[in-house]
Amino acid sequence: MKQQLVFEAPRRALPPRHLADLDADGLATAVAELGLPAFRAKQLAQQYYGRLIADPQQMTDLPATARESVADALFPKLLTAASEIECDAGETRKTLWRALDHTSFEAVLMRYPRRNTLCISSQAGCGMACVFCATGQQGLTRNLSTAEIVEQVRAASAELRDRDQGRLSNIVFMGMGEPLANYARVVAAVRRITAPAPHGFGISPRGVTVSTVGLAPAIRKLADEQLGVTLAVSLHTPDDELRDTLVPVNTRWQVAEVLDAARYFADVTGRRVSIEYALIRDINDQPWRADLLGKKLHKALGQLVHVNLIPLNPTPGSQWDASPKPVEREFVRRVRAQGVSCTVRDTRGQEIAAACGQLAAEQG
Ligand code: SAH
Question: Which residues does [4Fe-4S] cluster bind (predicted)?
Fold first, then answer.
């Protein structure tokens, strides 16, 4: 099935306003509109971001008489877990979230010895139509609201706390959707995720990665926001001819433009950019492509780049497969030989369709 590129999300209504949609000023205004004293704003933020409570009935420092109006105005129950499945001995857990309008999308929690990483969605579905990606084949249903993005983080943080499994240290926008196609809401969500208490979860921006298919102007804009986050660019091949077919948005912003934008990001932020490369057997894994990738990246980004090779996770109906290990090793060797750091990403969640590119929530 060939999908169309879609930049503008279909005009579906976003959910009602939630506390997590608001910045500190917005929350102060909302609290005033409810006729509550100003100090309640900080208290509500502390309950939500600090104590990870999203139900005002559990906010014991809030007068019982105010709880209902606060719930109505600021805490609609945006997400319901429709299913939760785990693998890797419980160290990888996928949640299928159902929104108020029954749109669904997924988030994946991965536990490692020294970190907990949550892979979150920024859109329901995706409009970028990358041919090897399950979400890309599904098309775009709608953007997620800021609060729907933030709620994925709150829920996972609360779950980790309740199981005594430590804090959430890393957030990757590598679930469903193209984060930079839902730009303003994603940036607002990043601010809530990284803001110190009481107006955010206080997760270090260094632990937050925004992954993009390569929307060059939006990459530059993101650099100028000075969020301190890591940028990942899904390149998948160094040449335009093949990239046009794998990543259709390449017909709009070509490899050179994407790498220029990545360089701008690295210069402005001082942060090394990650390059994502799904290694596909006999498609983009040839030695000459590894050489070309290394050369182009070294020229464009010098030391400010790291290549993450992702063994292709086959999606239903796909003819494609991951490259054999010797081919993968040779690819790594050649990229490194050009002076570019390169590693292979470990693949989590394959058997529960929770690995990169496998997220495809059923719609309805
Ligand atoms: N839209 C964002 C986030 C997508 S998911 C982006 O394109 O970066 C995160 C990564 O998984 C991307 O690099 C994406 O290209 C990759 N990916 C998609 N499908 C995959 C598959 N079947 N196997 C391996 N990686 C895949």
Answer: 126, 130, 133
Q: What is the mean pLDDT of residues 21-26?
A: 97
Q: Compute the distance from residue 357 Cα to the ligand 1 centre, in Å.
A: 5
Give the other-Cβ count within 10 Å of 202's Cβ.
14
Per-residue pLDDT, 2? 57
Amino acid found at 121: S
How close is the Cα of 198 to the center of ligand 1, in Å?
33
Catalytic residue status for 119: no
Ligand 1 pocket by C-beta < 6 Å: which residues?
128, 130, 132-133, 174, 178, 211-213, 234, 276, 278, 310, 312-313, 315, 356-357
Neighbours of 335 (CB within 10 A): 26
pLDDT per residue as tens digits for the range 31-75: 999 999 999 999 999 999 999 999 999 999 999 999 999 999 999
Whether the pTM exceeds 0.90: the reply is: yes
Two structure tokens written together for 285:
């894994």
Confidence of residue 288 (pLDDT cuts 50, 70, 90): very high
The amino acid occupying position 318 is: S
* CA-derived radius of gyration, the chain: 21
Nearest CA to ligand 1 atom 15: 234
Distance CA 350, CA 82 (A): 20
Active site residue 351: no
Establish whether 204 is an annotated binding residue. no
Average pLDDT of every residue of the chain:
95
